[in-house]
Inverse folding.
């Protein structure tokens, strides 16, 4: 059966890497899936598409600039009309030459999807071609002799990998779906903003230092001041509160806020109020909860600047 959206590929591919011992998170700095394993120095990037296309191939090559192991993932369609263009033997040979991994997912109506590995990412070898038609590693991945993947001498790759790993580590969980488009992503920055909003929801108006102490967000003061999402309001000097947009955001991201709230003793009241009211992610906060926390609603104002990473 053919998938309608590439997001359908995410769950089985994530499960595959989890079985291999990786921690997996989606939509990290534009990468559909990033996987990290303590025993490995390099992260894994997986780019997904419903079918194998040239843009997918070029995207995979571009991701190699980070120094990560890069996989391409597509559906293997069992229908004859969709299978005639799936020349996986030839595509596997191409991926091997480019040091890309290739993985497919076959979907069934009555059983779990099947994940098949066609080739694993490997080192780029200059000797793969003939004397008349040598295959040389691209300049971005070429390295000195003795560097198996040609990455050690390239500072830009180290910087790219460090940036990727910093964003990965700053996220407390996997709150997105790989392959998503046109959706607001829960980035590390947005997650910290949700933490700050949760503190203000539970405790009312607070100084930035107290918000930082409660949430552990080192940049709480800057986040409240910059107010990228329009969630916070400056009540008076050194004190901030939550706007109507901030209250609505905690409802919009209720699933994320609930996970975060479970880690804070001071958020137990908010969690209990949600459970007692039987609210779901799209529900609005009720008056009883407002009384419980003694909060004062503010009026939303326009964001001070454009949100980071959406």
């Amino acid at each position: 059966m053919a998938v309608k959206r590439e997001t359908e590929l995410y769950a089985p591919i994530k499960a595959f890497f989890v079985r291999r011992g990786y921690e997996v998170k989606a939509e990290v700095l534009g990468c559909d899936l990033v996987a990290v394993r303590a025993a490995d120095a390099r992260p894994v990037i997986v780019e997904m598409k419903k079918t194998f296309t040239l843009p997918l191939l070029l995207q995979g090559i571009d991701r190699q600039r980070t120094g990560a192991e890069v996989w391409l993932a597509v559906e293997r369609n069992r229908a004859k009309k969709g299978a005639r263009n799936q020349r996986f033997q030839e595509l596997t040979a191409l991926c091997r030459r480019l040091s890309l991994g290739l993985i497919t997912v076959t979907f069934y109506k009555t059983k779990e999807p099947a994940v098949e590995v066609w080739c694993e990412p490997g080192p780029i070898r200059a000797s793969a071609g003939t004397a008349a038609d040598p295959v040389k590693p691209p300049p971005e991945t070429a390295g000195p002799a003795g560097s198996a993947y040609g990455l050690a001498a390239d500072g830009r790759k180290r910087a790219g990998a460090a940036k990727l790993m910093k964003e990965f580590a700053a996220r407390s969980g996997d709150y997105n779906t790989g392959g998503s488009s046109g959706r607001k992503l829960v980035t590390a920055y947005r997650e910290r903003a949700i933490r700050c909003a949760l503190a203000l929801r539970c405790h009312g108006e607070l100084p930035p230092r107290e918000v930082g102490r409660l949430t552990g967000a080192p940049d709480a003061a800057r986040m409240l001041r910059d107010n990228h999402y329009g969630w916070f309001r400056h009540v008076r000097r050194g004190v901030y509160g939550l706007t109507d947009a901030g209250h609505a955001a905690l409802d919009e991201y209720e699933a994320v806020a609930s996970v975060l709230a479970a880690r804070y003793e001071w958020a137990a009241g908010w969690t209990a109020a949600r459970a007692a009211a039987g609210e779901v992610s799209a529900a609005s906060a009720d008056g009883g909860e407002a009384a419980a926390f003694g909060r004062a609603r503010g009026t939303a104002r326009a964001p001070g600047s454009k949100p980071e990473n959406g």
Remarks:
- The domain at 6-170 is CATH 3.40.1350 (Trna Endonuclease; Chain: A, domain 1).
- The CA atoms of residues 277 and 286 lie 8 Å apart.
- The chain has twelve helices and eight strands.
- The chain has a mean pLDDT of 80.
